[in-house]
């Protein structure tokens, strides 16, 4: 079964966040054509990772923060 909820290492807490596939403009900003990268959809989060594991993940540039971001984060 396929689940979109995953633990996000930058959001903290013991809960999970919904992850969505990277959009083409996000892949372009990273300079990759990989289609297996997903990002956390929490407000203000920039974390992305391959679907199967957190290793190989990172943060998108600040201009690609999710809407609702707190400016102090």
Automatic annotation (TrEMBL):
It comes from Streptomyces azureus. This is Uncharacterized protein.
